[in-house]
Amino acid sequence: MHVPRGLGLALVLSVSACAHLSAPSIPDHGVKEAVPAPQIPRFVSAAEDPQNGPCIQTTHGCIALNAAVSDATIGGTICLSGYTKSVRPPTSYTKRVKAARLSEAGIAQTRAREFELDHIVPLALGGHPRNPSNLALQPWDGEHGAKMKDILERRLQELVCSGQVTLIDARLCIAQDWEACANRVRSRY
After folding, report:
1. Which range of residues forms the domain containing residue 74?
2. How many Å apart are CA 142 and CA 146, to the nearest integer?
């Protein structure tokens, strides 16, 4: 079966977006309660939320996107060599945010080198460079670490820039659960 370019990941996402989630076990005492369905990540446009701008709505909140990056602008933004360097926040900013996130998590500042301040939706896919909703602590090493996520980020950028995956599909995939996204990308591309 031939699947049009870019549609493949969308189909995989729509079928498996919540495959890793299972319904909670609720004892049946004769009372039926509504169980909320897991939220599937969705794109929220700047028009829908003019105060916060475009974002990916996930179970973790609305993860901010860079409004300058869209399907129409990828040739001059994320697909242009050196783009991420041009929008990456200075270390003076990221160090402050990282220190605050370490404190919030109860992690000693002496362990700062063990963590990256990660862009949940990477700059290479048009994630917002400075908005705190797009920044999270991530360990550098291990199977759940930043070094593993970096591989996925580069691959998704390649797929978007070659027209094999749409920008929105790549953003939705990585925003909710990057490890599940990596598995889907590995099995499909």
Report:
1. 39-188
2. 8
- Which residue in the block uniquely carries the two structure tokens 């070659």? 162
Q: Are 56 and 65 in contact (CB under 8 A)?
A: yes
Quote the CA–CA distance of 147 and 53 in Å, as a whole number: 29
CB contact at 8 A, 177 and 20? yes
Secondary structure of residue 176 in the 3-state scheme = helix
Written as tens digits, the pLDDT of the chain (189 aa) is 333 444 344 433 333 333 332 233 333 334 444 444 445 778 888 888 777 789 999 887 899 999 999 999 999 999 999 999 999 999 999 999 999 999 999 999 999 999 999 999 999 999 999 999 999 999 999 888 999 999 999 999 999 999 999 999 999 999 989 999 999 999 998
Token code pair at residue 94: 């990221």
Whether the CB-CB separation of 152 and 181 falls below 8 Å is answered with: yes
In a domain, 139, yes or no: yes
pTM: 0.77
Structure tokens at 166: 């749409």
Question: How many folded domains does the chain comprise?
Answer: 1
**Is the CB of residue 127 less than 8 Å from the CB of residue 120?**
yes
For tokens 């360097």, name the residue: 85
Q: Is residue 176 part of a domain?
A: yes
Contact 157, 124 (CB under 8 A): yes
Residues 24 and 141 sit within 8 Å (Cβ to Cβ): no
